[in-house]
Fold:
Amino acid sequence: MRVVAQLRAPGGCPWDAEQTHASLVQYLIEESYELVEALESGTRDDIIEELGDVLYQVLFHADLAAHTPGEDFDIEVVAERMTAKMVGRHPHVFGEAVAHTADDVVAVWDDLKAVEKPGRTSVLDGIPQGMPALALADKVIGRAQKVGVLDKDAIETIPMQTEDELGGLLLAIVASAKARGLDAERALRSTLRDLQSEIREAETSARDQ
Structure:
C-alpha cells in the first residue's frame, strides 16, 4: 500500500499519476488472464507472482479512489465491505442457518443475494455480458435451467468423459467454423442473446400468470 501511494504521489511515477479506473481496465483483464494461466499450468512462483499482480490492481484502484473527489474510499473500506458480505452470505458458518452440502450452500447464497439486491428482476441480472462466450454460456445455461427454460436432464449429451475429450471437440468445432469463414465466438454470443431473450420472456410470462 505504501509503494502504491508513493508511486501515485507528487514526485512519484508520472505514468501512475495519470491513470484512471477506465485506463486500468485493460491491465486488470490482462493480469487476470495471466493468473488463470498460472493457476492452470504454472509453477508455485508463477502463481505467487500473478496473484501479486492482481492484488496490485486492487490496491491501485483503491488508492486512486482515495484521492478522487466523490469516491473517497480506500482499501480498508473495500476489505470491510468484502468481509461483511462474506459473513452475511455464510449464515451457516457465522449464524444459525444449516447447510450440510455444497448444494445447500448455493441455495442459501441465492436466497441471500435476492434479499441483498431486490432491484434485480431476472436471473440474468448481474451476469457480465463481456465475459468470453464459453464462460458466458456456462452462466446463462445455469440460469436457464433455474427457470425451466432448459431441462438439465433432457439436454441431449455429446459422448465425452474427460476435459481432454471436450477440448478436442471444441477445437474441432472452432477449426471447422474457421474453415467455413464463420466466427465461433460471435455465433455463440448470438445464440446466447436469443437464449437470454427466451429466459426473460419466460420470466415475464411467469410473473403475469
